[in-house]
Amino acid sequence: MATGKATTNGAGTQMSCARQGMVTEQMRTVAAKEGLEPETVRQEVAAGRLVIPANVNHAALSPIGIGTAAGVKINANIGNSALSSDIETELCKLRVSVNFGADTVMDLSSGGDIDAIRRAIIEASPLPVGTVPIYQVAAELERTEDMTAEALLDMIERQAEQGVDFMTVHCGLLREHVALAQRRVTGIVSRGGGLLAQWMMHHNRQNPLYERFDELCDIARRYDVTLSLGDGLRPGSLIDASDAAQFAELETLGELTERAWARDVQVIIEGPGHVPLDQIEMNVRRQQEVCHGAPFYVLGPLVTDVAPGYDHITSAIGATLAAYAGASYLCYVTPREHLGLPSLEDVKTGVVTYKIAAHAADVARGRKGARDHDDAMSRARYAFDWEQQFALSLDPETARRMHDESLPEGYPKAGNFCSMCGPKFCPMRISHQMNEAMAAEREKSG
After folding, report:
1. What is the pLDDT at residue 384?
2. CA distances (Å), 154 to each of 133, 136, 293, 366, in order?
3. Cβ pair 285, 201 in contact under 8 A
């Protein structure tokens, strides 16, 4: 196969290169990271089952692959609110996300100098950076009703030119779908979906992102922006999950997937936020069928609505099951979901929690090498190799601190017993002693 790079002339997206039989530099990088053959990556990208979000203007990017052939990926949402604006804080959130293993970040800033914040994040980020362009359009207007299709498309191009790798665009929420959401307990909970629904009802017109989807694709193709087709009607509560509104929008997303692929534009499909445990597998399988195998990007989903402050846990349960069922990409949820903008500590907690969910799914899916990490940890535990245990931890600093804090003053920090049980009751220490005694007995008896 030939080797080539995507360009801004509209003829060199990762998908178009793959369909022409070309293995790009980005595909080779992804193959090396995933332990795949470059030709396998090319075939998956050509089929739309794997995406490589890699804007041609994102110079600091280290490309990744998202799809069922790759390991499960996680996204960390960062960005300010209209109430606070601090570039350095957002860069700190980026560093925390990178350090603890996020695969992508989304800048959801909605206040201050949004262009400057996004520029700083893109320049500093080795991870693909995503946005929701309608947030900035709305932030720059006095009234949402004053938004125009031209303003939306101009903003999408502005952000694409800056180097944004993937964008959430709520193109599948149609005017006729809005009435379906009126039957819900929690209505429309997507911020972007709510803005578009408000605009459509005020103007009595169709979604401009749907009407001008081909123009949107042309912009995405110029910069090789991956379109993350947003679920503006995702359920915001268990009682609204898997309803007519959600699935009507999903059908439209399936149509738009094929239209984007016809223009060699890569596509991700966004999935529901709140789903009972028993409905998750059905939701994933339905998305895969309706959207022709495009990678599925889920927010959680949260499997219960009663745990504000702990929704990183309620969502990680759903995320693990969704990934095991075939979702490729998990959007983290922090403890502050439903309560406020995440702090630096919340970002860390969200990333580590979702690394656990993604890894657990990779193990359950039988991904080659996924269990090696766990097995190495088991051997280190049995050997009481504390330094190796800390090194293998997803959060070494926390693991070391908790271990050391549990030992009384004067106890060695690297003893041959587990700190939970102590030297007298440690069953692994007892196992070692029994093994040694039995080995001595065998040697004595000849």
Report:
1. 85
2. 10, 11, 30, 44
3. no
Going through 90-233 in order, the beta strands assigned E by DSSP cover 104-107, 129-131, 166-169, 226-229
Gap between the terminal Cα atoms of the chain: 63
Q: Give the helix/strand (H/E) hosting 399.
A: helix 396-405
DSSP state of 225: P
Q: State the DSSP string of 188-205.
A: ---HHHHHHHHHHHHHT-
- Rg of the chain over all Cα atoms, to the nearest angstrom: 24
Tally Cβ neighbours within 10 Å of residue 99.
11
Backbone angles phi, psi at 126, to 5 degrees: -80, -10
| Residues of the chain with confidence (pLDDT) below 50 | 1-11
**CB neighbour burial string for 253-280, b if at least 16 within 10 angstroms, e if fewer:** bbebbeebbebbbbbbbbbbbbbbeebb
Model confidence over 393-402: pLDDT tens digits?
A: 999 999 999 8
Tens digit of pLDDT for each residue in 403-440?
888 776 655 555 666 666 655 666 766 676 777 777 77
Instruction: Tell me: cis bond preceding 272? Omega within 30 of 0 counts.
Output: no
| Calculated CA dihedral for residues 30, 32, 35, 40, nearest 10 degrees | 60
The total of other beta-carbon atoms located within 10 Å of residue 57's CB is 16
**Cβ neighbours of 154 (radius 10 Å):** 14
Q: At what angle do helices 38-47 and 25-34 cross, to 10 degrees?
A: 110
What Å distances lie between residue 258 and 227, 284, 294, CA to CA?
12, 18, 10
Pairwise CA distance, residues 302 & 305, whole Å: 7
Looking at the DSSP bridge assignments, the partners of residue 226 are: 166
> How far is Cα of residue 172 from the mean position of the Cα atoms in its chain?
20
User: Which residues are paired to 325 by β-bridges?
Assistant: none
Asked whether the beta carbons of 117 and 133 are under 8 A apart, the reply is no
Reported as type and span, the H/E element at residue 268 is strand 267-271
Given this model, what pLDDT does residue 6 score? Answer: 37
Give the Cα separation of 44 and 27 in Å (integer). 10
Q: What pLDDT, on a 0 to 100 scale, did the predictor assign at position 322?
A: 98
Helix extents (H) in 308-426: 311-325, 344-364, 370-382, 386-392, 396-405, 422-425
Pairwise CA distance, residues 343 & 438, whole Å: 54
Whole-angstrom distance, CA of residue 250 vs CA of residue 365: 25
Residues 6+ apart with CB under 8 A from 401: none
| Residue among 108, 245, 113 at smallest CA distance from 173 | 245
pLDDT value for 417: 61
Helix or strand or coil: residue 299? strand
Residue count of the chain: 446
